[in-house]
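Sequence only, no structure available. Ideas?
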Amino acid sequence: MIGLTYAADAAQPGGLMSFAPLALILVVFYFLILRPQQKKFKAHQAMLAELKTGDKVILASGFTGKITKVGEKFFTVEIARNVEVEVERHAVAAKRTDA
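Reply:
I predicted one. Tokens follow.
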């Protein structure tokens, strides 16, 4: 009976080998999810830093407009003639490239 318990212990993989699947999952998770999100976040931050008065933007709410005033934390965006709204920087989803 004692011989069977030693045989069962010998069949267990080493401590390092038991963490190999977990490490593999973490590496795949990093390259498929975290790294692309970090790149996207950095590109969005760079786009926000480049915005200036007169640029046409698309807001996260779906409105499009033209930036009329650039502040440190807010943009003033004209969404219609004589209609201006103040939005936070992160509310700008993208810069419009069409003329």
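Residues 70 and 80 are 18 Å apart (CA to CA).
Hope that gets you unstuck.
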